[in-house]
Amino acid sequence: MARKAANDIDFETALAQLETIVSRLESGELPLEEALKEFENGIQLAQQGRERLQQAEQRIQVLLQKNADAPLADYQGNS
After folding, report:
1. What average pLDDT does the segment 21-50 reach?
2. CA angle at residue 49 from 67 to 41, to 5 degrees?
3. What domains are defined for the chain?
């Protein structure tokens, strides 16, 4: 299965791929070498996800610092 470079996929895609890898590893049906490759891919995806979440948290902190007095409210959308 070909995979995009880690920086080319969004958080949701990386998470879906990670879930697939976990399922395959949990099945216990992979040969050792393939299981190791999948595990390595999973570690990379998990690290990428952690980095993306940290970046999002930093962006939120910056936005809140710019307007610390802004009230927080649920997003209503444009429906």
Report:
1. 95
2. 170
3. 9-67 (1.10.287.1040)
Residue among 40, 48, 38, 36 nearest 11 (CA) = 48
* Mean pLDDT within 49-58: 91
Distance CA 10, CA 12 (A): 6
Per-residue pLDDT, 42 = 96
* CA gap 18, 55 in Å, rounded: 19
Mean pLDDT of 25-45: 96
> What is the rounded CA–CA span in Å between residue 48 and residue 56?
12
Least Cα distance to 35 among 46, 48, 26, 44 occurs for 26
